[in-house]
Protein backbone atom coordinates (compact mmCIF):
# COMPACT_ATOMS: atom_id res chain seq x y z
CA UNK A 1 0.00 0.00 0.00
CA UNK A 2 1.24 3.48 -0.89
CA UNK A 3 2.30 5.69 2.02
CA UNK A 4 -0.06 8.61 2.60
CA UNK A 5 1.24 11.87 4.00
CA UNK A 6 -1.00 13.94 6.26
CA UNK A 7 -0.62 17.66 6.81
CA UNK A 8 -0.62 19.07 10.35
CA UNK A 9 -4.12 20.39 9.82
CA UNK A 10 -5.37 16.92 8.80
CA UNK A 11 -3.71 15.29 11.82
CA UNK A 12 -5.32 17.87 14.10
CA UNK A 13 -8.71 17.17 12.49
CA UNK A 14 -8.29 13.43 13.22
CA UNK A 15 -7.34 14.21 16.84
CA UNK A 16 -10.35 16.53 17.09
CA UNK A 17 -12.68 13.81 15.75
CA UNK A 18 -11.37 11.21 18.19
CA UNK A 19 -11.51 13.70 21.07
CA UNK A 20 -15.16 14.43 20.29
CA UNK A 21 -15.76 10.65 20.30
CA UNK A 22 -14.75 10.81 24.01
CA UNK A 23 -11.55 8.78 23.44
CA UNK A 24 -8.79 9.07 26.03
CA UNK A 25 -5.34 10.47 25.18
CA UNK A 26 -3.88 6.98 25.21
CA UNK A 27 -6.62 5.63 22.90
CA UNK A 28 -6.19 8.54 20.47
CA UNK A 29 -2.41 8.02 20.31
CA UNK A 30 -2.74 4.20 19.95
CA UNK A 31 -5.32 4.57 17.18
CA UNK A 32 -3.08 7.00 15.29
CA UNK A 33 -0.04 4.73 15.84
CA UNK A 34 -1.93 1.75 14.34
CA UNK A 35 -3.03 3.79 11.35
CA UNK A 36 -0.01 6.00 10.67
CA UNK A 37 2.84 4.01 12.30
CA UNK A 38 6.04 6.11 11.99
CA UNK A 39 4.18 9.19 10.63
CA UNK A 40 2.18 9.48 13.84
CA UNK A 41 2.65 12.57 16.04
CA UNK A 42 4.26 11.97 19.41
CA UNK A 43 2.22 11.37 22.56
CA UNK A 44 3.19 14.81 23.89
CA UNK A 45 1.85 16.46 20.70
CA UNK A 46 -1.44 14.60 21.05
CA UNK A 47 -1.57 15.61 24.72
CA UNK A 48 -1.00 19.32 23.93
CA UNK A 49 -3.56 19.35 21.15
CA UNK A 50 -6.20 17.60 23.27
CA UNK A 51 -5.51 20.07 26.10
CA UNK A 52 -6.36 22.92 23.71
CA UNK A 53 -9.55 21.06 22.72
CA UNK A 54 -10.51 20.81 26.40
CA UNK A 55 -10.05 24.59 26.73
CA UNK A 56 -12.50 25.12 23.85
CA UNK A 57 -9.99 25.82 21.08
CA UNK A 58 -11.21 23.55 18.27
CA UNK A 59 -9.44 25.46 15.49
CA UNK A 60 -7.43 23.08 13.31
CA UNK A 61 -5.76 25.78 11.20
CA UNK A 62 -2.53 27.30 12.42
CA UNK A 63 -2.88 30.74 13.96
CA UNK A 64 -1.50 33.78 12.16
CA UNK A 65 2.15 34.31 12.95
CA UNK A 66 3.58 37.51 14.28
CA UNK A 67 6.02 39.57 12.30
CA UNK A 68 6.02 41.66 9.20
CA UNK A 69 3.84 40.32 6.37
CA UNK A 70 5.54 39.46 3.12
CA UNK A 71 4.38 42.50 1.15
CA UNK A 72 7.75 43.41 -0.29
CA UNK A 73 7.68 41.15 -3.34
CA UNK A 74 4.62 42.70 -4.92
CA UNK A 75 4.52 42.99 -8.73
CA UNK A 76 4.93 46.77 -8.42
CA UNK A 77 8.16 46.44 -6.39
CA UNK A 78 9.49 43.75 -8.76
CA UNK A 79 8.80 46.01 -11.75
CA UNK A 80 10.42 48.96 -9.98
CA UNK A 81 13.56 46.90 -9.26
CA UNK A 82 13.65 45.86 -12.93
CA UNK A 83 13.30 49.48 -14.07
CA UNK A 84 16.12 50.60 -11.76
CA UNK A 85 18.41 47.90 -13.14
CA UNK A 86 17.57 48.82 -16.74
CA UNK A 87 18.22 52.49 -16.03
CA UNK A 88 21.63 51.78 -14.47
CA UNK A 89 23.04 48.31 -15.04
CA UNK A 90 25.83 48.93 -12.53
CA UNK A 91 23.50 49.83 -9.67
CA UNK A 92 24.19 47.91 -6.50
CA UNK A 93 21.64 45.87 -4.59
CA UNK A 94 22.38 48.03 -1.55
CA UNK A 95 21.44 51.17 -3.46
CA UNK A 96 18.22 49.56 -4.73
CA UNK A 97 17.37 48.53 -1.16
CA UNK A 98 17.95 52.07 0.08
CA UNK A 99 15.90 53.57 -2.76
CA UNK A 100 12.92 51.28 -2.24
CA UNK A 101 13.37 51.03 1.55
CA UNK A 102 13.40 47.23 1.59
CA UNK A 103 16.00 44.78 2.85
CA UNK A 104 19.11 43.90 0.85
CA UNK A 105 18.22 40.20 1.06
CA UNK A 106 14.77 40.82 -0.44
CA UNK A 107 16.37 42.76 -3.33
CA UNK A 108 18.67 39.80 -3.99
CA UNK A 109 15.68 37.44 -3.94
CA UNK A 110 13.77 39.62 -6.41
CA UNK A 111 16.75 39.96 -8.76
CA UNK A 112 17.89 36.33 -8.76
CA UNK A 113 14.78 34.26 -8.02
CA UNK A 114 11.87 36.26 -9.40
CA UNK A 115 13.55 37.94 -12.36
CA UNK A 116 16.14 35.26 -13.08
CA UNK A 117 18.97 37.78 -13.49
CA UNK A 118 22.58 37.01 -12.74
CA UNK A 119 25.93 38.72 -12.94
CA UNK A 120 28.01 38.24 -16.06
CA UNK A 121 31.70 37.71 -15.47
CA UNK A 122 33.85 40.59 -16.73
CA UNK A 123 35.92 38.13 -18.77
CA UNK A 124 32.94 37.32 -20.98
CA UNK A 125 32.32 40.96 -21.93
CA UNK A 126 34.78 42.98 -24.05
CA UNK A 127 36.20 46.02 -22.36
CA UNK A 128 35.17 49.41 -23.66
CA UNK A 129 38.77 50.32 -24.47
CA UNK A 130 39.20 47.17 -26.58
CA UNK A 131 35.99 47.94 -28.41
CA UNK A 132 37.13 51.51 -29.14
CA UNK A 133 40.51 50.28 -30.43
CA UNK A 134 38.73 47.94 -32.84
CA UNK A 135 36.57 50.80 -34.08
CA UNK A 136 39.65 53.04 -34.49
CA UNK A 137 41.48 50.30 -36.37
CA UNK A 138 38.67 50.08 -38.89
CA UNK A 139 38.20 53.89 -38.85
CA UNK A 140 34.66 53.70 -37.51
CA UNK A 141 33.04 55.93 -34.95
CA UNK A 142 30.71 54.71 -32.22
CA UNK A 143 27.59 55.96 -34.01
CA UNK A 144 28.22 54.19 -37.32
CA UNK A 145 28.72 50.79 -35.73
CA UNK A 146 25.80 48.43 -36.14
CA UNK A 147 26.08 44.94 -34.66
CA UNK A 148 23.46 43.79 -37.15
CA UNK A 149 25.58 44.74 -40.17
CA UNK A 150 26.20 41.74 -42.39
CA UNK A 151 29.76 42.28 -43.59
CA UNK A 152 32.36 39.96 -45.01
CA UNK A 153 36.02 40.67 -44.57
CA UNK A 154 38.28 41.14 -47.57
CA UNK A 155 41.92 40.11 -46.95
CA UNK A 156 44.30 43.05 -46.70
CA UNK A 157 47.47 43.25 -48.66
CA UNK A 158 50.62 43.56 -46.58
CA UNK A 159 51.05 47.27 -47.44
CA UNK A 160 47.55 48.18 -46.32
CA UNK A 161 46.89 48.52 -42.61
CA UNK A 162 43.27 49.63 -42.24
CA UNK A 163 39.77 49.11 -43.57
CA UNK A 164 36.69 51.28 -43.75
CA UNK A 165 33.03 50.32 -43.86
CA UNK A 166 31.22 52.06 -46.68
CA UNK A 167 27.82 50.40 -46.34
CA UNK A 168 26.62 47.92 -43.73
CA UNK A 169 25.45 45.58 -46.48
CA UNK A 170 28.71 45.61 -48.43
CA UNK A 171 32.10 44.14 -47.76
CA UNK A 172 34.96 45.72 -45.87
CA UNK A 173 37.09 47.44 -48.47
CA UNK A 174 40.81 47.93 -47.86
CA UNK A 175 41.83 51.57 -47.97
CA UNK A 176 45.38 52.92 -47.95
CA UNK A 177 46.35 55.35 -45.20
UniProtKB/TrEMBL annotation:
Where does the Mos1 transposase HTH domain start and stop, copy by copy? 10-57
- Residues annotated as signal peptide: none
Q: Which Pfam families match?
A: HTH_48
Which regions span the lipid bilayer? none
Q: What is this protein called?
A: Mos1 transposase HTH domain-containing protein
Amino acid sequence: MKSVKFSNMELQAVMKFLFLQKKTLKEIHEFMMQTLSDKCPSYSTVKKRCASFQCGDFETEDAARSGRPSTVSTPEIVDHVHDLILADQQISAKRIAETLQISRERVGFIIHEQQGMQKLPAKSMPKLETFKLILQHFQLDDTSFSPLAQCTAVPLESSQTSCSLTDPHTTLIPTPR
